[in-house]
Every structure is written in structure tokens, then in C-alpha cells.
TrEMBL record, chains A, B:
Keywords: DNA-binding. It comes from Zoogloea ramigera. Residues 134-145 have a biased composition (Polar residues). InterPro entries: CadR-PbrR, DNA-bd_dom_put_sf, MerR-type_HTH_dom, MerR_fam. GO terms for molecular function: DNA binding; DNA-binding transcription factor activity; metal ion binding. This is Cd(II)/Pb(II)-responsive transcriptional regulator. Residues 134-165 are annotated as: Disordered. GO terms for biological process: positive regulation of DNA-templated transcription. Residues 1-69 form the HTH merR-type domain. The lineage of its organism: Bacteria, Pseudomonadati, Pseudomonadota, Betaproteobacteria, Rhodocyclales. Coiled coil: none annotated.
DNA sequence: TAAAAACCCTGTAGCAACTCCAGAGTCAAG
DNA sequence: CTTGACTCTGGAGTTGCTACAGGGTTTTTA
């Protein structure tokens, strides 16, 4: 089976499959004479596994760990449990953060009724307040770690992949 | 005031300030003879504004919009309200997604008690199931848009900035 | 006054997990 | 034999920074 079919059967973009191969999540595929990748049922299953993990928002590193366990079936699976527990913890924490964030945003939103001029906008004014003292150097770490840690993740994807153009 | 002081007063890393300038969020600073950036109260206030927005997890584009409004005080602020409402919507949606995710993860977690061998691990087996049919091509869009859209964000930052080293 | 420490500069590369594109080759159908 | 669908590689872009390297400048200390 060629890459396009594998893509279709797993709902994975072709580019992503090649990317997984580069990253070592998928083993290198055999090639036809014309240098096309060919896959078998094992690849399909492995890719499906990966995608299921990704749909649960696991990182590649986490998935790598799980794959290693799959590949060495005699090991105990305690670490699998631990990994999952940690992941659940991450998710729960992020939910808490976002809930706090939502509350803050709603407070802010309540500062302004429609139709004022921007100069009188309660929201803009609120955001402008306390200019000399932001993200209190001591008492941060609290509500949004994005600044202090790796600082990637956002609330939503927001930008469509412009697949249609 | 030099960049280091501005950094300290706003709790912003120096690199980030320069980055904001490159991105056009902060206007270009004046320079001393030795080519050092110098800032005044206006810069401080603007940076504080930006940081407050970021702490509410707004994107640079959203912040740009808000800054434009701040800079044209006679405009009506309806769009500010709209922007905030949209942002709150994003946050709320992400919370819902993550809550569904958490549920799924807990179901998965319940598949395995401690100490089994990996070959018998309920979790690995569950993740391996249904290999021929994943992320149903029609019924996706549902719980995790990360795949279909820009595909960045993750559940948690996870990787420390190794600021201490 | 000179050396050392602390600060600042530019430019580039890296992160996560892809996505998109260009420019080229391969293959099946008409 | 051409058209079109598919595939290949390699590289750049996404977001919001962070982390150097390899310099220059200012301030502090001896």
C-alpha cells in the first residue's frame, strides 16, 4: 500500500506520515523501484496507534515511550500507568488554568457596555491600569505559566490550515 | 531608562522586549550614543498593557487590534467587546475540549491495574484497537481540532526554560 | 586608572508538531 | 503519448518566544 492509501485509512495527512518517519515514530518504509514508500498492515497499526495517542494530546516523547512498551511486551506496564497519570495531571492542571483565565476575562468583559468611545472603554482602561507593576515578580507562577515555561501553547488553534485554497 | 530596567519593572525578559519591537508591538526605541535603547513612561505603559493581554492568553494579533483602539480613542469600542467575547469563546471551547479529553483519558486509565506485563496492559491494548479505522474521516472536528487547524497548542508547557543554568 | 563585571547590541537557530510549497520524478488511463 | 493523479526530496513557515555566539559599552571595583 502506498502512502496516499495509508493516509486515507488513518485520516493522517501524507506530509505528517513522512514527518513521523523522519522523527522515528514510524520505521522507514520499504521502497518500490520508483522510490515510492510501501506500507503493510504493521505500519498501519502503528500509525493508528500513534494517531490515537495524538488525539489524546500526548506529545511525541510520550508516544515514543508507549511505543517502546508495545515493542517489548514482557516488561511490566507500571510506567504506562504512570505516564498516563502524569498526562491526566497535565490536562487537569491546564483546565484549572483556563478556568481561572475565563473568570478573569469575564470580569474584564463586564467593565464595558457596548457603544462607548474607546477612550471611555472600561476594558481598555482596565488593561492599562497599574502600569508600573505587572506580573508581580514574586507572586507569579500562579495563573498562567505560559510566560515562565516553554511558552508555546495557546488557548485555541485559531488559524485554519487553508486546506481549501 | 535602559532595556534591563524596563524588563525588571514589567517582569518581561529582555529578549522578549526586543522581540516585541521587531514584531512592531512596541515602537522602536530611541538610542543612546552607544546604541543602547532608551525607554520612557509611554513605552513602559504600553509594554505593561501588552503583558497584561498576554497573561490573558491573547495572541499578538488580538493585542495589535487592542493597541490600535487605544491609539485611536475616538472610535467606538464595540470591536473591543467583540474581540473579548470571541476570546472568551475560544477559552471556553478549549476548556470543553480538555474536559472531554480528561474523561477519555480516565476511561483509558481504568483499563489497566498496576503491575501487569505490557503485553496484557489494558491501556496499550485499548490504544491498539480498531487499527483500520481511526479519527473517522467524517465525524472528526469533534473533540480535538489540533489536528485539523494550525496544530500547535498543547495541554501544558512541560518544558522548563532552564533559566537557572 | 585599569581591569573586571555587568550590561547591551545584532543575528541566527531552536522549540512542537506539523503544514505548505517548489520542482522534479513515476505511474495508470485514455 | 499526453494528461492527470500521485509521489519524491528539501526547505521554509507557523507561534511566541528563548538561547546562544561574538561582539561592543558602561559601571563598578581594586
Amino acid at each position: 500500500m502506498k502512502i496516499g492509501q495509508l493516509a486515507q485509512q488513518t485520516g493522517t495527512p501524507v506530509d505528517t506520515i513522512r514527518y513521523y518517519e523522519r522523527e522515528g515514530l514510524l520505521p522507514r518504509a520499504a521502497r518500490t523501484e520508483g522510490n515510492y514508500r510501501i506500507y503493510d498492515a504493521m505500519h498501519l497499526e502503528r500509525l493508528a496507534f500513534i494517531r490515537r495517542c495524538r488525539s489524546l494530546d500526548m506529545t511525541q516523547d510520550e508516544i515514543r515511550v508507549l511505543l517502546r512498551f508495545r515493542d517489548t511486551p514482557s516488561e511490566s506496564c507500571e510506567d504506562v500507568n504512570a505516564l498516563l497519570d502524569a498526562h491526566i495531571g497535565h490536562v487537569a492542571e491546564r483546565i484549572r488554568e483556563l478556568q481561572q483565565l475565563e473568570t478573569q476575562l469575564q470580569v474584564l468583559r463586564a467593565c464595558c457596555k457596548e457603544g462607548r468611545q474607546a477612550v471611555a472603554c472600561g476594558i481598555l482602561n482596565e488593561l492599562s491600569q497599574g502600569a508600573t507593576e505587572v506580573s508581580t515578580p514574586s507572586a507569579s507562577e500562579s495563573h498562567l505559566s505560559a510566560t515562565h515555561a516553554g511558552g508555546r501553547q495557546h488557548v485555541t488553534p485559531r488559524k485554519q490550515a487553508t486546506r481549501d485554497s
